[in-house]
Amino acid sequence: MIAHISLSIVIPALNAAQTMRSTLVALQGGADEILVIDGGSTDGTVDIAKSAGAVVNVSDSGRGAQLQLGGQKATGAWLLFLHADTKLGDNWGEVVCSFMSDPKNRARAAVFRFALDDPSPQARRIEKLVHWRSNVLGLPYGDQALLISREYYDMLGGYRPMPLMEDVDIVRRIGKKNLTALDALAVTSAERYRQGGWWRRPLRNVFCLSLYLLGVPPLLLNKVYR
């Protein structure tokens, strides 16, 4: 008999009522616990999370701080960090179980394939750009989720309470050679791209990433980003 491998899913959220329900529905039955770490929502985010059976914890605002708290609260042998506006593909449970079952992956991590919930050509071009950044540079962002064993996560020191670039910070510590791209989608809401301009947001992300890699402090970058 194969021993059960426990999985905790951590979802940082802030005013995510519009997407939270579909994100949680896609996860039903696939995890031992789902933790929603709320950063001070004023909409129905918390009520939706609780009605779906998630455990809600309140955190200081800022995704880095929320992720750090979620990692501390989670009890699973494996952790899956997921954004509140991202819905995992139908085969996610099977793919995750396969990755967790391989002992060699206890000192590795995995991300999903990025996709946007928009049929436009602009969305497809952004997906290709993200695919290149993730696979060539080894720098997937948090909207591709992160699957990692508790043992490896603790060894790395987990997420840091950074105001920006907390996802880049942890994948750089993991390293490209220790990152696997899973054969499953993480479908993210394209609303921010539609509202902010299809290319303005990616260009701003590239600009901030470049400054971060050059050593500009995340606190200062956060002012640029906003």
Note down, in words, how this protein is organized.
The protein is of the alpha/beta class and 226 residues long. Helices cover 43% and strands 20% of the residues. It contains 10 helices and 8 strands. It has helices spanning 17-25, 45-51, 63-73, 92-101, 121-136, 150-156, 166-174, 191-196, 200-213, 218-225, and strands at 7-13, 33-38, 55-58, 78-81, 86-88, 109-116, 146-149, 179-188. Strands 3-2-1-4-7-6-8-5 form an 8-stranded mixed sheet, sandwiched between helices. Strand 2 (33-38), helix 2 (45-51) and strand 3 (55-58) form a beta-alpha-beta unit. Helix 1 runs parallel beside helix 2 and helix 9 packs antiparallel against helix 10. The longest helix is centred in the middle third of the chain and has 16 residues, at 121-136. The radius of gyration is 17 Å and the shape is globular. The termini are far apart. The relative contact order is 0.15. The mean pLDDT is 94.
